[in-house]
Amino acid sequence: MQKDILEIRNLSKSYGRLKALDSLSLTVEKGSVFGILGPNGSGKTTTLGVLLDIIKADSGEYFWFGRQPDASVRKRIGALLEQPLFYPYLTAVQNLKIIADIRGVAYREINAVLDLVKLGDRKFYKYNTFSLGMKQRLAVAAAMLGNPDVLILDEPTNSLDPKGIADVRNLITEVAQSGVTIVLASHLLDEVEKVCSHVLVLEKGKKRYAGPVDEVLEGALSMEVAAKDMLLLETVLSQMPQVKTIKKQNGFFVLGIHEDFEPGLLNKKLSEQGIYLTHLAVRTKSLEKYFLELLSDDHE
Amino acid sequence: MNRLIKIDFRKYFYNRTFWVLSALYVVLVVLVFTGAEAFINKIVSNVGKNSPVTIPNFSLYSFPFVWHNLAFLAGFFKIFLALIVIIFITNEFSYKTIRQNVMSGMSRVEFLFSKVLFVFFISLFVTLILFLTAFLLGLTHTEHITASLVFSKMYFVPTYFLEVFTFLLIALMFAFVLQKQGLTIGLFALYYYVVEPIIAFRLPDAVARFLPVRITAHLIDVPNSALMKLFGVNFREYVSWLDVSVCLAYSVLFVVITYLFLKNRDL
Q1: Helix A92-103 with B2-13: angle, nearest 10 deg
Q2: What are the pLDDT digits (tens) for A32-72?
Q3: Does residue A258 belong to any structural domain of this protein?
Q4: How far is residue A139's CA from residue A202's CA, in Å, rounded to a whole number?
Q5: Residue B267's closest chain A neighbor by CA?
Q6: Among partner residues B6, B96, B97, which is closest to A101 by beta-carbon distance?
Q7: For the domain that residue A160 is a member of, what is the CATH number?
Q8: Complex prediction ipTM
Q9: What is the pLDDT of residues A232-280, one digit of tens each?
Q10: Which residues does chain B have within 8 Å of residue A86's beta carbon, measured at their own beta carbons?
Q11: Listed residues A216, A251, A274: the one ending a domain
């Protein structure tokens, strides 16, 4: 079995003069939870739309499971794109039956996915009586129908209440543990940070970063320190194995440190050398901060 | 194909608009079929009051003329069917369910084919209604029924099917290209009532008769009645193979055009 679930080569798409996708290349490995991050209008939905044959790319190609994409390949992909799309006059079950027929899935699987998104008690209600959050849940259920090998979720927690958001996140984590590859587009950074193993950062249709989330957040832990004798401090710090980087910034040293290194330990070690800190602060670098840094680079 | 029929069936079966429009069509057509003879006779007898020649009463329903008469009459109601087709195809775009269908694993060709099947079954259904009412009216209004009398002009029934099918494929093409419901209904009506008549007026008759709406309408010509013969007007009482071939060619053409349009389009 091939390792790459999805391979994208130089995909481009323009809407008039606007470049929605600019020569994007990417591979998604089997079993990963792949987050696509980017501000509004950065090409997240366009990318997913192309991968689902909803949007036709101007150039470039993509392969699902190492194959040229066709309709039968999409039967192995569960997708939720942008907003729930169902027949308003049909009930939840009738809507899912249509999708089951399209995908060649047995009707008995419908109840299971409806229970999964907690819509079991509303399954015989018409779609147009649903609240926004329930519509979104139904869309998640539709994506899960037939145990797809890949789940594509575009803003899956849109219009959900906090409980619903937590439910969907748990669901994503559970599904991911069962070996399903997940591609998740979101502008909510903590969402991606919480559930994703890999991340692609898009800006104006261009790839800004792609790789494991761990690597993005590497050096995520940092400390700011200062002492009266900065020179001595620097020599002592540079001999510590736990300190990876030292950068001078605004009269402090900003230290890149190993994860298990904590301020108390640093303090203790320095006082043993006769150095007493005048300033010590711990910075936790979140994906959000990283993301903002990355995007602001370009505009300097 | 069964799968596509099953999928599409569910989309219409539970839709109230579909049933209301269908019921309306059936009631309307059956009323017109059964009332037409009395209506025409009444008008003719009023007009003919002062006529020196006695005008014979019409019999619309006697075999074998009933097939031609009612098939011609039914042709006036196909615009109603076009409305149903347009509503349900543009619905897929306004609900964006075509997206959901395609991303769930339907190909664009399958989607188009499912709608061609929809048009096919509507045409089949209305042809069946024509057949049944004409058959029953014929049975009850013909004095000496023989098998040859019943069957001799029955070819107007399948011809009616082709008329409706080709016509509805024009509506299908409009719906797929324009996608917006109001716009499609508006422009289709405009084409049907204004644009094509104007084009036809500008063209020589020999060419104009091959325009899509016109050729479907003239596939079944005005039935000759005793009255028409009285005036020396003589319409075509047969179906021309040329017309049939052109209609078939149009049917293929409209589906191909729709396919080419749908193939590379963002949904």
Answers
A1: 170
A2: 899 998 888 888 899 999 999 999 999 999 999 989 898 99
A3: yes
A4: 25
A5: A54
A6: B6
A7: 3.40.50.300
A8: 0.86
A9: 888 888 888 777 778 887 778 888 777 677 778 888 888 888 888 888 8
A10: 95, 97, 100
A11: A216
